[in-house]
Amino acid sequence: MNIMLFHSTQGLRPAVLQAADRLRAAGHEVWTPDLFEGRTFDTVEEGMEQQEKIGKEELLKRAVLAAAPYSERGLVYAGFSLGASIAQTLALGDDKARGLLLLHGTSDIAPDVTAEDLPVQLHVAEPDPFETDDWLSAWYLQMGRTGADVEVYRYAGAGHLYTDPDLPDYDEEAAEATWRVALGFLETL
């Protein structure tokens, strides 16, 4: 499978590169574009400041440019938090998308979007300050209306970026469960 993996608001941190290596070890081809041009951040707040400086439109433009050379192959879009929201936006706009793997994040869905039978898997903490229960319920219903085939996995007590071993949110048990399920999902595509 060809996977475009986008980083969180904290930048292209070692955990993203480790995730890409894990995916490659399972036989996938993976690209990890650096939307922050080499900058990484220790906190979500610092990353969000950078995200705001760059702007949503510019981040999406960078993501589209990174994915464009490979989109004809039929990409699985994936991402962490901010990267998940970017992956979702790109997957819903790409009729050749093979799947969507969301880790720690979602995004708004335009009312006229269709994604007939697009396999979508979301992994998120429970509770998550950025992905509240009300938001996730509405997101799930809206994603279902697009025609996507959606699976949601929640991890009680885990922190927001629980798959990053270098952050305080890290939860080894939840992270390993996420990767086990996600790798199984990718095998079905």
UniProtKB/TrEMBL annotation:
Keywords of the record, alphabetical order, are: Hydrolase
Q: Which residues form the Dienelactone hydrolase domain?
A: 3-188
Output the Pfam families linked to this UniProt entry.
DLH
- The answer, when asked if DNA repair is one of the entry's keywords, is no
Extract one GO molecular function annotation from the record. Answer: hydrolase activity
* Protein's UniProt keywords contain Hydrolase: yes
**Classification via InterPro entries:** AB_hydrolase_fold, Dienelactn_hydro, Dienelactone_hydrolase-like
Under what name is this protein listed? Dienelactone hydrolase
